[in-house]
Predict the structure.
Amino acid sequence: MIKNHKPIGGQAGMNYAIRRFLQLIPILFGITFLSFLLMYLAGSDAVTEMYSNRGVEAAQEIIDERKAALGLNLPFFQQYLNWLGAMLQGNMGISYVTGEDVLTAFMRKLPATLLLTGSAVAVTVLISLPCGILAAVRHDRLVDLLLRFGSFLGNAMPNFFVAMLLMEFLGIQLGILPVIASGTDIESAIMPTLTLAIAMSAKYLRQVRSAVLEELNKEYVQGARARGVSESVILWKNVMKAAMLTIMTLLALSIGSLLGGTAIIESIFMWDGVGKLAVDAINMRDYPLIQAYVMWMAIIYVFVNLTADLLYHYFDPRIRLGGSAK
């Protein structure tokens, strides 16, 4: 028999959330260790690179002294434990290049990435949701074929190519938008938003179509039609409610990716977010900033996936916590 368990909620839901959160803590620590190890094994001399970027040729004694001040002459595990202890206290170190506090620099860039994330997700939903539903409802008809062809083109074109096309036509040929972002204003955000939204919309259009089409072919839909329930009621009150679970999970993953900063797009448009900050840090071997970016990415992905998991359990009545079919 199948045990009768209540959906997630109340104390059971809280216990499940706490248990899932505790399971994620070792993952975060593992990510910090692996990323720190990879940067250590890279073998690049961060201090020499720092002086080189400043156009200074420093003596070896000065380089050794600077390494000692930064703790780079210590054994690997000692360096890692020192960094981890400081990080747990909210101190992510000092930039090797600028000498600025890493957390301060990171938080200064974060609002730009939040703005780009919000606008890209909003445009993606406005495009992919109605188009995906229309393609599913008009399955194998002309509009479905056209939308699927457009989705195929959007998936086939890499983001940097879409960015170049938009810059050429909207920025250079028509001159209606700035080619390079002059700040975080709405006008500067349009082209990077469209670049991200085109690629994501192409992907999610197919996912929405697939999810809705799968629900439309289920027996409960056929039964509702046999009882005379209107197609609009079936679509919006039954089909979309079930299909949105899959769509919600996919969107959560995309939000995590965008919050991490789409480095290529931010660099192309000179959008001053955390993605561009990470690219600049990599070019200059600014390890504290790189480590901060890796931690940010790890935290975002872990907690976005946790949120999606909790929402999925809450909204899907077929999932029962702790239950099993026997």
Notes: The radius of gyration is 25 Å. The mean pLDDT is 78. The longest helix spans residues 102-137.
